[in-house]
Design a protein that fits this description.
Elements (H helix, E strand, L loop, with lengths): L2 E5 L4 H12 L7 E8 L2 H5 L9 H29 L4 E8 L2 H12 L3 E5 L5 H7 L2 H8 L3 E5 L2 H8 L1
Parallel strand pairs: 1-2, 1-4, 2-3, 4-5
Helix pairs in contact: 1-3, 4-6
Length: 158
């Protein structure tokens, strides 16, 4: 049985990864788990809210981030199901750092393949922002497919 972990953040780059995965032929009994990670770093800051701060605002921001992540996995699942109704698809939404959460979920799920989109950052941006796809590819215990948006790749050839 093939187990694929698809990580999505709802960006156009993630949507390209979903589309690429949807075009792939699958063997019988292929399972796909779709993961979205939302940032809950505001939760740890709640203990240090300055006097007069609005803790409910922080809770609202976390709640919205979680809802957006839930929509992202539902949309990805719908696209994959439409392309291949025989796929076994599950979804999960977790708080935390995308790099760590993807690697942890991959281990717990027993993934044979991780699929992520590439944001196409240049070297300087990768240095400043870090690259989720790069970190996952370096530290994963299984194969990793990094899907690039076609027009980004073509621009680099010019």
């Amino acid at each position: 049985m093939m187990k694929i972990l698809l990580a999505t953040d709802g960006s156009e780059y993630s949507k390209v990864a979903v589309e690429e995965l949807a075009r792939m032929p699958f063997q019988l009994n292929t399972e796909v788990r779709i993961l979205s990670v939302f940032d809950n770093s505001l939760a740890s800051a709640m203990g240090s809210v300055p006097m007069g701060g609005l803790p409910s605002t922080y809770n609202d921001a976390i709640l919205i981030a979680k809802e957006v992540s839930e929509k992202n996995v539902k949309d990805a699942a719908k696209s994959l199901k439409k392309a291949n109704s025989k796929l076994s698809i599950t979804t999960t939404v977790v708080p935390g750092s995308p790099k760590n959460a993807i690697l942890d979920e991959s281990e717990n799920y027993g993934a044979n393949l991780i699929v992520v989109g590439s944001h196409g950052y240049g070297a300087f941006s990768r240095f400043l922002l870090g690259s989720v796809s790069q970190a996952v590819s370096l530290h994963a215990n299984c194969s990793v497919l990094i899907v690039r948006k076609q027009d980004v790749t073509e621009k680099r050839k010019l």
